Amino acid sequence: MPTPVNGQARFILQRIAQRVMREKGLEPQYSPAALAELAAIQATASKTDGTRDLRALLWCSIDNDDSRDLDQLSVAEAQPDGGIKLLVAVADVAALLVQGSALDAHARENTTSVYTAAQNFPMLPEKLSTDLTSLNPGVDRLAVVVEMTFSPEAELRHSDVYEAQVHNRAKLAYNSVAAWLDGKGPMPAPLGAVPGLDANLRLQHRMAQLLRARRHMRGALSLQTIEARPVFVGDVLHDLQAEQSNVAKNLIEELMVAANGVTALYLTARKFPSMRRVVRIPDHWDRIVELAAVRHVELPPEPDGIALEKFLVAAQKEDPDYFPDLSLSVIKLLGAGEYVVEFPGGNAPGHFGLAVKDYAHSTAPNRRFPDLITQRLLKAALAGKPVPYANDELTALARHCTEQEDAAKKVERQVVKSAAALLLGSRIGEKFAATVTGVSDKGVYVRLTRPPVEGKLMTGFDGLQIGDRLQVQLVHTDVERGYIDLNRVG
Predict the structure, then answer these.
(1) How far apart are CA 82 and CA 157, in angstroms?
(2) What is the mean pLDDT of residues 307-320?
(3) Share of the chain above pLDDT 90, in %
(4) Per-domain residue ranges for the chain?
(5) What is the assigned CATH class of domain 425-490?
């Protein structure tokens, strides 16, 4: 167990987060003009004549324990033929956030919320993102609803998009819902307080499992990474804990993938452009083939998602402790996701990792600007209005959103690395088990098994490849830069 670090840790990490935000081209503060606009917003948006009233449905949200910017709700309805109708309600942020305003300019510049252990930097001020445009429990809110009806075999039979008024019956959290669904924990109190919601959530879970199985049969990849999260007790940095996936997170992921696919197709059918989230066919497939060969598995010479998925499933069963590191290696070799615009008649790449062709980020407009763009496109299409962005503007925005998302991830990783450097500062000379996670001209990087953080290998890196396991010794840390320097031993 790492030694707890004193109460200055949070302040130190906040200062580092703000500095790195600026270094990466992100603005940690709102402009005076944006704050003036914010002060003038005093109420939620009003419904229009065409807004459907869906407040009576058993809507609920499932998110992280500490999430306050609730972007989506979900509900299910059993169908007479054994199929299931799923509805996903997405917070109607565009109803309050005026395109071209100072608040919109800030969101457009950062393009995403940045979440660090020491401080969060929301894309929209909390008055909006956690209150007036958040789908909070116990209040009526406007939403854009994606409706999907599936056969008993999870084949999409019908879909629609429309505006509605909704009411969140229960704010639920991933970990407690997952424990309940797995039979390892009690029913969460907010769930038990709403008659019928438990059965509805099990219905959502059943369809999500079917949707997940269909995607993985098409080559969606079973990847499991370990995300290190600094843990504070008060202001004292106590530990780094690993966050992993669970069945509740999988449930929401499947509903969002389905809703994002319907959204993309809805815009295409109306000859509107759409901003797609894509992961291209991997350039480094040859190295993925080598990774598999080390484990005596032969992959085809050309990228094949189905074959890769079979390898990953087998590898997880064979060595579950190593699998997160193997997953991280595969993710890095697959390449980063990006935003591209598909114009009418176009053919944008699909998402290799999710095994879907049509995929638009649309379900988190409080947190991501691409989702807000998509929502504005949807609302224009619904209202029969012109496209609210010029083609060149959309293309530039897609590139900008990709760049800023990468910058935001670097900020979040920097704070985790600085937190790790704080915790490990008193452990110079100790030895750790590690796995190689990166090999490039910049150096060789490894992930420690415990705590689950990355550091740079300073010696003994010749001949190493991603996925290799080794022993390392901690030789130096630098909190400001988040450096963890290691030597190979043994």
Answers:
(1) 13
(2) 94
(3) 81
(4) 9-280+335-420, 425-490
(5) mainly beta
